[in-house]
Each structure stands twice: as structure tokens, then as C-alpha cells.
Amino acid sequence: MEEGVNNSPNGRPPPPGFNQAYLENNQPVGGAGNIASVGIVGQQPSAARADLWQQTLQAAVAATTQPESRRRMQSRKPLRQTPVERNERSLLCLTVQNPLRRACISITEWRPFEWLILMMICANCIALAVYQPYPMQDSDTKNTVLENLEYLFIVVFTAECIIKVIALGFLLHPGAYLRNAWNILDFIIVVIGIISTVLSRINVQAFDVKALRAFRVLRPLRLVSNVPSLQVVLNAILRAMIPLLHIAMLVLFVILIYAIIGLELFCGKLHSTCVDTSNGEFAQKEPSTCGLAPSAYHCEPSSFSSAIHARNNKWICSPNTTWLGPNNGITNFDNIGLAMLTVFQCVSLEGWTDVMYWVNDAVGREWPWIYFVTLVILGSFFVLNLVLGVLSGEFSKEREKANARGLFQKFREKQQLEEDLKGYLDWITQAEDIEQLNDDDEHGGDEHLVGGVGGGIGGDLDGDGVLDGEEQGVEEQQRSSALIVQWRFLQRLNRRCRRGCRRMVKSQMFYWLVIVLVFLNTLVLTSEHYGQEPWLDHFQTGANLFFVILFTMEMLLKMYSLGLLQYMNSQFNRFDCFIVISSIIEFVLVYFEFMKPLGISVLRSARLLRIFKVTKYWASLSQLITSLLSSLRSIISLLLLLFLFIVIFALLGMQVFGGRFNYDPMRPKPRANFDTFTQSLLTVFQILTGEDWNTVMYNGIESYGGIGSLGMLVSIYFIVLFICGNYILLNVFLAIAVDNLAEADQVMNAKPGEEDEMEVEGEYEEGEYEHGETDEDGLDLEGDGEDGDDEVGGDGEEVNDEVVVGARPRRASHLTGQSKQKPIPKASSLFLLSHTNPFRLFCNRIINHSYFTNSVLICILVSSAMLAAEDPLQAQSYRNTILNYFDYFFTTIFTVEITLKVIVYGLVLHKGSFCRNAFNLLDILVVAVSLISFVLKSDAISVVKILRVLRVLRPLRAINRAKGLKHVVQCVIVAVKTIGNIMLVTFMLQFMFAIIGVQLFKGTFFSCNDPSRMTEMECRGEFITFEDGDPTKPVSMKRVWQRADFHFDNVMDAMISLFVVSTFEGWPDLLYVAINSNEEDRGPVYNARQPVAIFFIAFIVVIAFFMMNIFVGFVIVTFQNEGEREYENCELDKNQRKCIEFALKAKPHRRYIPRNRFQYRVWWFVTSQFFEYAIFIIIS
Predict the structure, then answer these.
(1) At a CB cut-off of 8 Å and minimum separation 6, what does 430 contact?
(2) Cα-flanking dihedrals φ and ψ of residue 510, to 5°?
(3) Using one digit for the tens of pLDDT, what is the confidence trace for 455-504?
(4) What is the pLDDT of residues 104-152, one digit of tens each?
(5) Under 8 Å CB-to-CB from 1088, ≥6 apart: which residues?
(6) Are 685 and 725 in the same domain?
(7) Exposed site from 176, 484, 587, 1046, fewest CB < 10 Å?
(8) Residue 691, annotated ligand binder?
(9) What is the largest CA-CA distance in the chain?
(10) 268: in domain
């Protein structure tokens, strides 16, 4: 028997599931416990034998499909790992067998050593964060302890570096220490740390480089790089570095060109300001640029006393040596460095209008706007958006690779399951063969069984005590049967109740009842506002308790009907359970007065997320929510990278700018500074959003002496932070949104057959690899039968022609220069002209002629320019009179055009008529407005004024004539039609944040203009202040108790305030008002509530970084889909179409080589790469 077992076809050991099932079914028979007694003993009936094999087969399948077995198979990895190849010698002297090197190798490969280094890195970052920089290099006890602790970090990191150098070698061979980028970073930090420590010990004033150790926080990325979603983000960013480098060169080229132009046009123009010649002081409180050009800013009086000086020519526009220029001379075009910095600021769109107006005031306003507008369009709107294209493309590629790896892994797991199941079936077949070899012993086994059973019974029936036992057994059986009946009745009742509850909780009526309760709870939360009546407080408390009870009953009912495990399988149910439990804990703590009803009450607002359950019966919204949820993993990974990035630059900013932003004693210290780790984090995050980042940069430059010193070098910190954070990391949010929306849109728009085909391809079905029938199925799934018949039924030439035309619909005519005319409708036009009428055909040839179309387009453009040239201030001016005659001429042309088109296509009644097109209706509206305004010539009539205003729609008529412009407008219209779901989700999220904001900040944004008064009762009377902080200029002012412009006193105002935050415009001011907010009806206290910054950061990440980018991503996806709709019936894929377009557009490259020897040598020289590089260097 053992030979039969061991000689299995696949040589597999007996499967555990098989042995257990077989032993359980044969346990009463065999007593020996060996294979023979298990496999042969007893003759089983045929039905029982079939049941036995069925149970064994089920056990085998269950053993292969249960999670434990699957995890075991997934954990099956080769036991032998490829040994790490190490160089024979390290540092040219230590061999692999050297005891010192062997010890160092063992230490580097020891896992606790890696954990120790990681803990030291975290401790070093914490020490850098706790360090408090003070002005003038001052220090305290805490900083002294941290500086002494720095020696420990240097010793540990130096020891790590030395151990790794001994173990791996230094540089000269592959696998050496400095052949790894992370090790290079560690080595540089260690060396710089040692040098700075030595220089500080010998009292050499050196630049403080301790902040470079903050880059060690990048090392944990090596540990989390195995996370697939984080790996996708990291690889996408790293792989995009080369294309991003090309884009950076293009951006640098654009900035350099515009900086040179600005240097030539505006050099030295931004230093003149209005000066009072009587005393040489500034004539204005805030100096500004001025000029002598006719349209420049002239020094004019702003008060009565100033008017007297102006009449006496006391004010002049001249360069003042005490005023360096805007932003203390940082914003100008005096040299190439400052010009490039100014141009980069304009490209970033932050403060570029101020620069433009300063230039306009200095040189005039006629033409400088051309410089700045073209700079913004070319540099910001076009070139910098190429970064998004690169990141989106690379992220999509990495996503496809990750999905392909995951699908291939699933396919391998399925193959492994099938192989294991095949092995189990082989063992079952061998067991059947073993049983057939032992058919001769069946009868004896049956006798042994019957004898054994009969002997056992006979032994039990001996003696009188058997009857007594039977009587006692009957009584016990009766009692137990009564309990069993009751128990079974309760079980049946419980099952019926659970079944009924399950039907109820899964019914639509229960679903909508919960939705109604959520809406009512939302209304209760919305009713909370500042200054509400006491009865409303009691009502809200009772209503919240009522809703908590109802939602608790809902949770318990679902747990009872579905079971605890099935209930907890849903993520939304787990979230709902957390909200209910937290609400119960909140009521308990508030009722017993353990805490104020604010902290955990914010969690009650998260209850509003239940409103998203309405997506269950809203397909498009459900698809959007699914797409957003699928982005969470990548978003979380990106947030981890973003957090590490912010921490690094915050620590670096503390070391470079800590305690330096109080450089001007006459001005208060800016709130955006680097004096503490928390404030540094907020400042770096503000720079990432792009709001007032240039102001922070100006303060940093001024803290190091301004433009007259090396302070301009610190601008590199802000430029690198802004570029890497705003243009790279934050654009990944948009790349993720575009990728997920495109994937969700592809799945939603796919036909049922295509979805099946996608599933077949996505899941790596067996037939795709083992059979050759997938192609036929794919062809059947791609189109309907009619298309297939037409294609197969035609001859070879027709098929080829159809393929070419299908590959390039509407574009082959463009290549050949022919225009495709719109056919004349067969219906009669205006009930008079048939489709064969000669006059109608003649009009059709006119309106479809290229000369006519181009002439109308030119007239549209010229008439639009005429509208822009009108004088709105003097309606009866001579210029407007001349322009009116041109308006008559163009209106006549447009009327003739519409008349001809109505004759050709008909008016409205039949298909294809003129008024059946929306763009044609726009043409009729514009022309009708012009005609009616001509009839009603009186401009005093308000209707005429409105009609003349509607003439501004005239440029829109060009949309119907320009194919590309029409395509863009159609994409925008489609996006606007379908963008409602995104607006709804964004509105719901913003509404939830608004309710949280009301609970956090209601009544706390009040303040008195006298900072010493904290309440409205105290803020009365007058107080003394000093103008510009000058003690010699006291001023008496009346105290005023006022509220901030943007506040959270009610939900509506909170929504408006949060919308302002989502635009990034002025959000730091609102942030610091919230941080200074103290209590309700009390004035602000400096940094009273710094943790509330988390609220604004969370809102910006969720709404501004992600949801607002969803809008842009949706427009991008819509534009792509509209572009592909042109090839909707094309049978070639995108790559094949590109190949055909390339072949059709390709032209041979001809090079004309001169025959004359001298000309040939000159030609060879000027076409060489050396000449190209030389000219490039000369240009640079």
C-alpha cells in the first residue's frame, strides 16, 4: 500500500484535507490507524461511497481555496536567496575573511541595527524640531542640551558610516558605499556635521549646516517603498525627472528671454518716486513708482495741503536714494539676476499685477501690458502646465504597470490553485485504485463489523439493570426533548425575526427613512449659529440625543439582522459604528460635565457623510464616489511624501531663518516666520499653496541684508520649495485625479460586450492562455452583426478603403485640400424650393465655397474689433459715428449670409434645417439684435441699450466657423452638463466643513482696535496710539468692537469663508485670525489655538488640492473623450491611427550638398555639431 501511495503521478505528499476527510468518514471501521485500515476496511454501499468521494473532493477544494491555504501559497518563496556579492577587498586591504570586516557585515545585516539607526534619525528630527532659534544667535538651557545631544547623533551616524564603509568598501568597486544615492546623502551629512562641529569648537564663525541633517527623514522612504501605491507615486515622480528636466530647461529659456527683454526695456525705471523738494522726504505715505511719460503716473496731491505744494511745484518725480524701489529694491530689472527673479514671480501668478502696474506707472500704460500678458500666457498657462502633462503620463504608465503586475500575480495564484486541486484529484484517484485492489476482503470486513456491533449490544442488554436504565433514560429523554422543543422554537422564532429584520434593513423604505433622518440631523446641525436663543440650545440638545438614539437603534438592528461579522465587513458600517459610539461617549462626558460640549461634538458633523448613501441609487454619482475612493490609496501615499517634504523644508527653514524675521524694529514681526517648528510648518504649507510666497521670500532676503549683500542667495530656498512643492508634488494630485477619472469614465462608457472583454483580459482567464478562441470572441464582442457582415461581405479593395477612411474620418480631406460640403436636405425650403431647385443649388455652392466662409470669418473678427474700438464715455463722438457705418455694413453681410443659409437648409420644420443647430440660433440672435437696435435708434430707451450690449455675443459666431474652437467649446459644454456630480460632492464636503467651522469658531472672530480690551463692554471710549510706531506721533482713536470680514457665525457665512480659503486668496489671514481666536464674545489672544490650523489644512487638502483638481481633471478627460469620438466607428486603435497619420504626413528629408569644394567644406562645418554647440554657447 505504501508503494501505491509513494508512486503517485505527481509525487505529491498526501494532502491534509484529504487524510482528515477520509479518516473522519472511516473512523468507526478501522482501528489500526494505518493506511490499509483507512483505505480498505468495510464494504460501503455505492451511494455512501459516492457521498464519501464527494465529501473528500469538497474538502480538497476547500483546502485549496481557504484563506490560510492561499496565504501559504503566497508565502511560498524560494528558500535559497541569492547571496549578496561582495568585493574581495574593502579599502584595498580588508578581505571578506577578515574578522573586522565580517563583524561589520554582520552588524549592517542585523535588523535591530537598522531599527536603531531609524530611531536615531527620528530622534534627530525631533531634536531639530524642538530647537528654538533666537535672534542674534541667543540661546537658552534647552538649546544648550540639544546642542550637546548633537554630539551623540554625530557619533552614532559617524559610526554607522564607518561600519558600512568597512563592510561594503568605499567607492572603487560595484556595490561600494558611495555607489548608493542614500549612502551619498548620509556621507555628506556626516561630513558636514563633523566639519561644522569642529569649526564651532575652535570658534570659527561658519554657516550653520545642522539643518542638512533633516534630510535623513528621507531614509524611511526605503522602508515604505514596498507599498504598491507609494511605489507608483515614487516611480512616477522619479521617472518623470528627465522629461521634467527638459521642461525646466524650456521654462528657464523663456524666463531668460523675458528677463533680457525686461532688462533692455525697464532697466533703472523702478526707482523714481514722488519727492517733496522742500524737505527731500517722500511726498506719499507709501512710496510708489512714477514717471515722466504722458501716460505714466504723475505726482499729484492727495489732500488740500498737498495741492498747495503741487501748485508751488514742490512735488517732483525723481530717483530718491533712500527709496530703493518696490519691495525694498528686490523687484526690478536692473540686472539679469533680479530680472529673472521678477519674471519668475510673474510666471507664478503671485503679485504679477503689482509688478505690471509699477511698470505702467513708471514708463506708461500703452504697451507694457503686452510684455506681461504674453509672459503669463506663454510661461504660466502653457509652459508650466507641461509639468502636469508629464506627471499625468508617467503616473498613468506606472499605474498600468502596477495593475498588470497585480493581474499577473492573480493569474499565477489561480494557476497554483489549479495545480494543487489537480494534485488532490490525483490522490483521490489513487485511493480509488487502492480500494479496488482490496475488494476480496469486503465480506470479512462486514462480518467483523456486524459481530463487533452485535457483541457490543449484547453486553449492554445483560442484567436487570437494563430496564431501570431504560426507565431513567425515558424520563431524561422526555425532559430533554421538552427543552429541545423549546430551544428549537426559540431558534425558529429568532431566525424568523432576523429574516424579517434583514428584509427590513435591506428594503428601500428603510434606506430612505435613514436618509430622511440624516437630512433632519443635517438641518438641526445647520440651525446652530452665533447668538441663538436658549430654547434653540435646548431643542438642539434634545434633537441630537434623539438622533443618537435612532442611529444607535439602527446600528443594533443591523448588527442583529446581519450578524456582527457581516456588519463589520462593510467599511461604511464600521465608520457608522465609530460615529455612534463616539456620540454616545460625548453625551456621557457632557452630561456628567467631564468636558465641554465642543471637542468630540465635531465628530457629530462627520455623521453627514451618511448622506453619501444616496449614491446607492444614483449611478453616475456612485461611479464618481467609487473613482474618488479608488484614489485614496494613491492620495494617502502622496500625502506621506508631501508631509516628509514639508518637514524637511520646515526644519531647514528653522535653521536658516529662525529668529531673523524681526529685522525691522519699526514693524511687527511677520506671522509667516520660521521661529518655531509649528510656525515653520504653516509657513512652508503656505508657500506650497502659492499665497504670498513672494512676500515671505522678500522677508527672508531682507533678514540677510537685502539686495546689497548675499541675502539674494536665500531666494534659492524659496524657489526650490515653490517649484518642487507647487509644480511637482501638488500636480501629482491632478495627475491622480485625471488617471482615476479616465479609468472610471472608460469603465462607465464601455458597452456590455466590451466590459466582458475587459474582464476577460483583466482577470487572465484560462482560455486566453491555453486556447486559441479568444480572438474570435473578441471580434464578436467588439461590434454588432451588421458591421461585421458589411466588412466581411465586401471585396478586398473595399475593405482596405473602408479601413483607411475609418482610420482618418474628416482628416483625409484636410490632407488633400478638399472640403466636405454639407448635403442639402431633401425637404423643400420655405415650402417653395425643392432640393433640386437651381437657385437653391447655386446658393449652396456659394455658402460652401471657401472664399465665402473665410470672408464671413474675417468680417466677424473685424466687426468684433470695431466693437472694442467704440468710445463708451461719449456715445455721440465722431469715432462712434464712423464705427456705426461699419456696423451697418457688417450687419448687412451677416443678414445676407443667414438668408442664403435659410434658403439652402430651410428654416425650422424639417431635419437638418438652419434653426435645428444651436450655433445657428446664436447667429440669428446676434443679427436680430443688431437689426432691432438699428430700427430703435434712441439710446435713451433701456431696451435698446440692452440690445446693443448683446452685440458683444458677435465674436461667438466665429465658433461655428473654426473647427478647433468649436471642438473646444463643445468639450466645455459637455463638461458643464456632466460636472454637476462633482459640484454636488464638493458642496457636501464643504458643507460638512462649514458645520464643523461653526462649532469651532462661532462668535470668536470679534476684536477691538485697542488690543488691551478683550470684551465688547470694555471696548468703549478712546485710546492713544502712535502713527507708524513712532513715539513722537501720538494719535487718539475711538475704540471699535468689530467682527472679521470672513467668519463662522453661521453656516452660510462659513461656506463663504471656506470658499475664499479654497481659492487660496488671502487664506493665511483667515488662518491666523482663527489661531488667535480665544473664546466666544472675547477678543483674540496671540496663538491661543494653534491646533485649529489642522482644520484649515485638512480643508485645503480635501477641497483645494483634490476636489478642485477633480474639476480640471474632468474637463481634461472630457476633452480627450470628445477627441476620440471622432474615431468612434473606427476599427483601428490609437497607435495604428498615429502610424497612418505619420505615414501620410511623412515627407522625405532632402539635403542639398554643394559640389564646389570650398562650399562643401563650409557646408560641412556649419552643419556639424561642433558649430551648433559653439553657437549655442555664444548665444548663452
Answers:
(1) 4, 5, 8
(2) -65, -40
(3) 444 444 444 444 455 556 666 677 778 888 888 888 888 888 888 888 88
(4) 888 888 888 888 887 888 888 788 788 887 776 677 788 788 888 888 8
(5) 1075, 1076, 1077, 1078
(6) yes
(7) 484
(8) yes
(9) 143
(10) no
